[in-house]
């Protein structure tokens, strides 16, 4: 059964437009104006149900504006959301992101109930490698520590010595204290890390289907056509990163914009990232040479409502796997910085 088969659209009630006037004003800079009246009844119904359930809704920065601004209580990058799940007062978390993010929240908040609105919301990086692959790498490279990007399943994290994020990858790799490190699964992130450390990296052939499709010629055209600064995520190919004015994680991108305040910027990353930053930096003109993440876009307002209504799609992790995966995350947190994708 589809999540919305038994989920009729909420009715428009009197006073809805006035009650959500401030949100409407915010969304008008990010969404076509005709969409907003369609979203408001869902937003209102979710807000009411959320209060009834005592739930907290968390949304990743790649979520669409009607979710990110309309219903989320906590927003941010994936590890920040996982940490917030551990710290918040609610025992019921709805994680609006992809599956590995919901798993990370469950790992850091094992006593809480974590739901994901669509269990099929996956990630090309997470599916590019499995636990058996990691064990095979260890056999081929005995004694070499394994650092896994947080964009991996709990099973892969459990086979790793430590996790990392795009912001702290260099720091985590060097903290292993080894001349060689197995770094997985994103080969482009690994190539970027390799330019900043003397540690030899053994890479896996995984890529992010959103970031790998950008090209250097697109980046150059955007700069020339729009006279824009280029900000790129390190999951992009090396020739794309070579064109960028700044390379960094989603959190680091926001810090760079705060510091530099460019007149015009092109975000070489997922489209909704630019939408959500536009609200934070209204004085900056955002050019969008972007790609949509099809997995993130599986999360919709009707699915969030159905998830809350039926308490469906609860995330569970086998205890033995969870204990080892949690240890990999906690080793990263003990090392230092913990911004993420």
Summarize the structure.
The chain is of the alpha/beta class and 341 residues long. The protein is built from 16 helices and 12 strands. Helix 12 links the parallel strand 9 and strand 10 (246-247).
Q: Write the CATH architecture name of the largest domain.
A: 3-Layer(aba) Sandwich
Q: What is the class of the largest domain in the CATH system? A: Alpha Beta
Query: Superfamily at the CATH H level of the largest domain?
Result: NadA-like
Q: How would the global form be characterised?
A: globular
Main sheet, how many strands, which sense, barrel? 4 strands, parallel
| Contiguous runs where pLDDT drops below 50 for at least 5 residues | 337-341
Secondary structure tally: strands: 12
Round the mean pLDDT to the nearest integer and report it: 93
Please tell me about this protein's structure.
This protein has 341 residues and is α/β, with parallel strands linked by helices. It contains 16 helices and twelve strands. A four-stranded parallel beta sheet has the order 2-1-3-4, sandwiched between helices. Strand 7, helix 10 and strand 8 form a beta-alpha-beta unit. Helix 3 runs parallel beside helix 15 and helix 5 packs parallel to helix 6. The protein is globular and about 65 Å long.
Looking at this protein, list some descriptive labels:
single chain, 341 residues, alpha/beta, Rossmann fold, 3 domains, 4-stranded parallel sheet, 16 helices, 12 strands, 43% helix
């Amino acid at each position: 059964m589809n999540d919305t088969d038994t989920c009729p659209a909420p009715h428009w009630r009197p006073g809805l437009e006035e009650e959500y006037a401030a949100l409407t004003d915010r969304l008008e800079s990010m969404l076509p104006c005709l969409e907003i009246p369609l979203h408001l009844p869902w937003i209102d119904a979710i807000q009411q149900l959320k209060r009834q359930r005592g739930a907290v809704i968390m949304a990743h920065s790649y979520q669409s504006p009607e979710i990110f601004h309309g219903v989320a209580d906590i927003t941010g990058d994936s590890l920040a959301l996982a940490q917030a799940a551990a710290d918040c007062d609610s025992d019921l978390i709805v994680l609006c992101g992809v599956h590995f993010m919901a798993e990370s929240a469950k790992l850091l908040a094992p006593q809480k109930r974590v739901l994901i609105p669509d269990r099929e919301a996956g990630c090309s990086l997470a599916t590019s490698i499995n636990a058996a692959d990691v064990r095979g790498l260890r056999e081929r490279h005995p004694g070499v520590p394994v650092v896994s990007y947080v964009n991996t399943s709990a099973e892969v994290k459990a086979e790793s010595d430590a996790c990392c994020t795009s912001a702290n990858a260099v720091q985590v790799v060097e903290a292993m204290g080894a001349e060689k490190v197995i770094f997985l699964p994103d080969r482009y992130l690994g190539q970027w890390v390799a330019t900043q450390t003397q540690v030899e990296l053994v890479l896996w052939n995984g890529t992010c289907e959103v970031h790998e499709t950008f090209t250097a010629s697109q980046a150059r055209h955007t700069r020339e056509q729009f006279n824009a600064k280029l900000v790129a995520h390190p999951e992009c190919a090396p020739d794309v990163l070579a064109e960028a004015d700044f390379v960094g994680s989603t959190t680091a991108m926001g810090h760079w914009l705060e510091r530099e305040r460019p007149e015009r910027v092109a975000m070489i990353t997922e489209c909704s990232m630019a939408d959500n930053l536009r609200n934070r930096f209204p004085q900056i003109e955002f050019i969008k040479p972007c790609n949509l993440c099809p997995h993130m876009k599986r999360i919709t307002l009707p699915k969030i409502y159905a998830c809350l209504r039926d308490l469906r799609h609860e995330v569970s992790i086998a205890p033995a796997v969870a204990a080892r995966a949690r240890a990999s995350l906690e080793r990263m947190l003990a090392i230092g910085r913990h911004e993420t994708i």
